[in-house]
Amino acid sequence: MSSLGEAPVVQRDVYRHLVLRKRLILVALAALLLFSVLLDLALGPASYSLGEVLGALFSPDSAPAQVRVVMWDIRLPVALMAVAVGAALSLAGAQMQTILNNPLASPFTLGISAAASFGAAMGLAFGVALFPLAAQYMVPVNAFIMAMLSALLIHFLSMRRGVTAETIVLLGIALVFTFNALLALVQFFATEQAVAAVVFWTMGSLTKATWPKLGVICLVI
């Protein structure tokens, strides 16, 4: 009887140990992330010490004008955008892996990223706006619409009888090849400048990050 009574206690201790371990890992990763952001703010064509960086962040009025402008107008939006983009990608991957119970599921393996690239390429190469009311944000809106259409297609097909998680992953891989072929077709008919713009967009860049764009990303997350 004593051994049976001790079993739940041992299980609780093991569970608490696992929870504590996960919390410590999260704290360590958060500290590493904070240090990486500060290091990113300090390094560049004009290098600053961590003390100068912290001074410009927490006391911008007393910091030199050059340091304040470099930190708040140039480097800080880019650094925070990198954090936001990483959070968005990890959240999307975790959602898909949980829903499909498959560690290989991601926006890339399910064709959603390929669909977004095709939508953006249509706007960059031919000026096609899938939502004319937002023509000034044509490229990101096109990418969002195509990504949502791809996700809805996968969703509706997954509701059919007999469809398993493996079937959905295979469907996503088929969508990857389909949209990649359409993207190649767009690049074939596009001009050299448009092809360069498409390649640059699909590779991604944070150099044009601004505070308003960062606000949009955070709102979406």
UniProtKB/TrEMBL annotation:
Q: Which domain of life is it from?
A: Bacteria
Q: Which regions form coiled coils? A: none
| Main subcellular localisation | membrane
The annotated topology with respect to the bilayer is:
Multi-pass membrane protein
Tell me which Pfam families the record gives.
FecCD
Gene Ontology CC terms: plasma membrane
SUPFAM superfamilies xref list: ABC transporter involved in vitamin B12 uptake, BtuC
Which InterPro entries is this protein grouped with? ABC_BtuC-like (IPR037294), ABC_transptr_permease_BtuC (IPR000522)
Q: Which residues cross the membrane?
A: 24-43, 74-96, 108-131, 137-157, 169-190
Q: Where in the cell is it found?
A: Cell membrane
List the GO biological process terms.
siderophore-iron import into cell
A Gene Ontology molecular function term for this protein is:
transmembrane transporter activity
Q: Which UniProt key words apply to this protein?
A: Cell membrane, Membrane, Transmembrane, Transmembrane helix, Transport
Q: Which PANTHER family match?
A: ABC TRANSPORTER PERMEASE PROTEIN MJ0876-RELATED (PTHR30472:SF25), FERRIC ENTEROBACTIN TRANSPORT SYSTEM PERMEASE PROTEIN (PTHR30472)
Q: Which family is annotated?
A: Belongs to the binding-protein-dependent transport system permease family. FecCD subfamily.
Entry protein name: Iron-siderophore ABC transporter permease
Organism annotation: Pseudomonas jessenii
